[in-house]
Amino acid sequence: LAKTTQPISMDSYEGQEVNITCSHNNIATNDYITWYQQFPSQGPRFIIQGYKTKVTNEVASLFIPADRKSSTLSLPRVSLSDTAVYYCLVGASYGGATNKLIFGTGTLLAVQP
Amino acid sequence: ETGVTQTPRHLVMGMTNKKSLKCEQHLGHNAMYWYKQSAKKPLELMFVYSLEERVENNSVPSRFSPECPNSSHLFLHLHTLQPEDSALYLCASSHLTGGGNSPLHFGNGTRLTVT
Hints:
The complex is a heterodimer of chains A (113) and B (115). Chain A is mostly beta strands. Helices cover 0% and strands 46% of the residues of chain A.
């Protein structure tokens, strides 16, 4: 099973860069790494996805080392509105096995003024 | 607007009631999912539909009955629920790809309270 491990919570201040690391030691060859953001009483929202090396979009960067056993979501210059739970999901959107759609406990990021 | 619409947003029902949750996606996806999110717990995958056929059922009690009449609509029929079934029920959709890199798109959920 491609189980993921993330810190339960993190604190930051506005304007800082935040890096959230996810461990996924049993990642399979065909697995992708996807990060989601969830606000209270809303569904998770896709942030970024990658397979290896580095991926960047308008809201975040994703760093994946060569062994792919971990990944780091980087949020540049966070604001109060970035306070949310961030989930790392490893696998396929549907690969014929339920373990590929299993969310972990996520990381609660609290951004303070 | 997420492209996945869930109704109702809030639902309060008694243990003997029958109700249904509705999900509709306008993204052209061909896989749909039901997740349950209880307070302070991770999202739990309940059901997966691929091309309108149920392909996963993670030991969900029979008081939850899904229905997928077409690739754009998904229902969750509820009957004789228990108070511990109170939770946020989330619907998601995605493309089916062999490589499996299609992200899930979630609706904003139905907050269910069973009294």
